[in-house]
Write a structure and sequence with these properties.
By secondary structure, the chain is α/β, with parallel strands linked by helices. Helices cover about 40% and strands about 15% of the residues. It is built from 13 helices and 12 strands. Helix 8 packs parallel to helix 10 (about 260-275), helix 9 (about 245-255) packs antiparallel against helix 10 and helix 10 runs parallel beside helix 12.
Length: about 325
Amino acid sequence: RHMFVRPTLLMTQSEWVAAHVAAAEFFRGLPRRLVLDNLKTGVDRPDLYDPKINRAYGEFAHHYGVLIDPARAGKPKDKPRVERPMPYIRDSFFSGRDYPTMQIWRSEAVIWCTNVAGIRKCRPLDGASPVRLFQAVEADTLLDLPARSFELAIWSTGKVHPDCHVKVGKTLYSIPWPLIGCEVQARTTQEHVVFYLRGEVVKTHVFKPKGRQTDFNDYPPDKIAFLQRTPAWCRAQAGRIGPGCAQVVAELMSVNALYRLRSAQAVIGLAERYTPERTETACGLALQVGDPSYRTIKGILVADRDVAVPTEQVGLETPAFLRGPDDLCGEVAS
């Protein structure tokens, strides 16, 4: 026994697989062989001898133990039976109906299949109803459903960007920094997103509908050290340098602390380059002139204005005319 599956162009990959799961639950089993059309939702690359099945659809087939056998391209006789009922389904079910959500469409489709299409008298069946023929002949040939329900997963491919993130749907997920530039495969379920590189798991995240999901351990070591320098860390480090530096950092953190965090980190970093003592002196001078900014403090240090220059004093040994007025006037009189 086999079943031919006809996808619709409007179906996404998840809806396509979900429809198969719903069909398996409706019939309480699946045939051993599924013949499907060659849309991208089921077949990534059609081929007569070795077709490439979509990974999500392949997981479905593996879970239920069925064979996927795509129809041959350009061979309409491989799929005539499924095409014949389509005008009846279009006119009897879809015509005149309009529901706001897919969930309502599915529930109404089940009611229609049970109360209308299933009990109608079919001339090709000598007046028998499809549901009676199914119960009498076909139901016992179906494979039993496994005890564990199928977990629907969506596969996608993305490139790891220089910021150590890859986009899956509407969310950015972090990936270990050595994989920057690599193309990874993402398996998305309702609970987790698992990333693979050449078949090996490289990262797992909790699913997030949209936004950014970042594990700081995925960043390079120098980036991690930078991100760990929080406003609280800046205040503590500035206090160790001196009261002047502490006041400068406090003023920087007083308004829009997250946006001025980089400036506070830079001021503290000057202590490693110019010693804490010089940095404290420069901070004090910047406060005196009313401009406690990183640019001003660095300018003071670069110009060595924090270092006191000794004033040149005139000593007694400086050459000078030291003769008294008598000698000077005597020479003039003579």
